């Protein structure tokens, strides 16, 4: 493509020549040579080769990111031609659904023959599979009178999937969950509990032969009995939980659902009785009222049912409070008013339905961003019912002036939950989900 940026030089040359002839001034005629040089250079210049010589490679780290995890994209641009490109500019084809959090997917510089340079930027990953478009490049000659546009398909990574699987969590660190729960009664097991007098019918392998060798009396070794724990994983998918730090970041409900997915995989694999609840949404399989509930008694259908509930919790927001639709109601006043006056969106009031579904003596892992006071009421109710509660709380507060106030209110809620005797894991955006969840699994169940 030709750019006639020196068109005005023609007029200057003609004016100088005309003035020189009219005044018989040779110097004016000679001065016309200067603008004529620019005009001539623009006429004979060629567009720099771009499409056939520019090579681009794209790499991302990590290749399968977790939700909310920063994704670093590195572009390597190389000039494989025999001539230099004085001005090469590019724009990477970032997926429309993702936002750039650091750096820029566009740039430019001069590139010598055989030379290369890199550009790195960071994306915020969210649930799903994303494909990059081709890279748009533009080359200009030294004077900018010629340019060439092209789209170059980058080699290397052209798409990636943001997913959560059990392989993503360091299971070997979850020692507090390993196997079954120990009790204070003796019987079959692996941990020594006590010795007692031998009774006819006791297994031979449990006889304390060392004591028999010393005293000649038979005794039976009892081990600490192991009972499977019943653990309830609750996902907060109510309307207040569907907030994010910015438009491209995952919501608190989405992050909570991902954490619950990992926890379910680990706990089921280690032999615990696990139930799943999702606050604020109807069951996507049975269409029953909130909360969506998957009982540990469902057997083979548990995995498919739990997967459907986790997916629904990550993407479905409950209906907002009616006050939010009232144009006469202050937006700033809505959250606190709805928190205090609106009924719980679990199908009842004061979390009655949730409390009735949580089995007696079960331990609760609550995944919630902690965006309103009702979640504190839920923890207080569960603690009052005798349940041990561990709360994993992803941070979804924007880095704005208003966000600081929201962050302070959230910190107060977390402190209230701690005062109730619950364990709180404050998961910030700089900590990877497996690390935060590993802390839950090490402290949550005893």
How does this model look, in words?
Strand 15, helix 5 and strand 16 form a beta-alpha-beta unit. The protein has 4 domains: 7-44, no CATH class; 54-163, Immunoglobulins (Immunoglobulin-like, Sandwich); 185-227, no CATH class; 230-317 and 337-443, Rossmann fold (3-Layer(aba) Sandwich), CATH 3.40.50. The relative contact order is 0.11. The strands form 5 sheets. The chain has a 6-stranded mixed β-sheet, sandwiched between helices. A 5-stranded mixed β-sheet has the order 4-6-2-1-10, with no helix packed on it. A 4-stranded antiparallel β-sheet has the order 5-3-8-9, with no helix packed on it. Helix 1 (7-23) runs antiparallel to helix 3 (33-44) and helix 5 runs antiparallel to helix 6. It has helices at 7-23, 26-31, 33-44, 209-215, 252-269, 302-315, 334-341, 352-357, 374-384, 401-419, 433-443, and strands spanning 54-61, 70-79, 85-93, 100-102, 106-111, 116-124, 128-131, 133-140, 147-152, 155-156, 159-162, 181-187, 189-197, 219-227, 230-236, 273-279, 292-294, 363-367, 389-394, 423-427. The protein is of the alpha/beta class and 446 residues long.
- Strand tally is 20
Count of separate structural domains: 4
- Give the amount of beta strand, in percent: 25-35%
Report the uncertain regions: 165-190, 319-344
Which CATH architecture of the largest domain would you pick?
3-Layer(aba) Sandwich
Strand order of the largest sheet: 17-16-15-18-19-20
State the secondary-structure class. alpha/beta
Q: Which CATH class of the largest domain?
A: Alpha Beta
Q: Using the alpha-carbon principal axes, give the shape.
A: elongated
> Span between N and C termini?
71 Å
Fraction of residues in H or I helices: 25-40%
